[in-house]
């Protein structure tokens, strides 16, 4: 089987905006990851960046089903001995409103260079305003 190479300069990158109000975090993240990878395009190539840009607004109003607001725990390590810090979804949402959505999207992207590059193509905002009006983003239904 031949490896397909598409000239990335010829690819058209569109901008989409997703309003996460009242939607589950995982569904919004799954839709964003699909568009970031470019799986919704006919020229999808798994080893190249062919996807679009995604803006997610109202990330603080996204729902977490069940008892996950208190039961879901995010961990980070400071790098020092005994430096493991754990925070619930509610506390993380209060301190950094974009963090739970970004972690959900990051988990759905490939690990490695391509995944890190694709993660720069998503912009998450806790409120309804964003600074990308000049790109004329199209609304995307989840």
Please explain how this structure is put together.
With 142 residues, the chain is an alpha/beta fold. The chain is 29% helix and 18% strand. The strands form two sheets. Strands 5-2-1-6 form a four-stranded parallel sheet, covered by helices on one side. It is globular, with a radius of gyration of 17 Å. The mean pLDDT is 94.
Oligomer: single chain
Q: How much of the residues is beta strand, in percent?
A: 15-25%
Amino- and carboxy-terminal Cα gap? 34 Å
Counting DSSP E segments of at least 2 residues, the number of strands comes to 6
CATH H-level superfamily of the domain at 15-65 and 93-139: Ribosomal protein L13
Along the chain, the helix and strand elements come as EHEHEEHHHEE
Low-confidence stretches: none
CATH architecture of the domain at 15-65 and 93-139: Alpha-Beta Complex
Overall outline: globular
Number of helices: 5
The level 1 CATH classification of the domain at 15-65 and 93-139 is: Alpha Beta
At the fold tier of CATH, the topology name of the domain at 15-65 and 93-139 is Ribosomal Protein L13p, Chain: A
- The amount of helix comes to 25-40%
Structural class: alpha/beta
Mean model confidence by pLDDT: 94
Main sheet: strand order:
5-2-1-6
Q: Over all CA atoms, what is the radius of gyration?
A: 17 Å
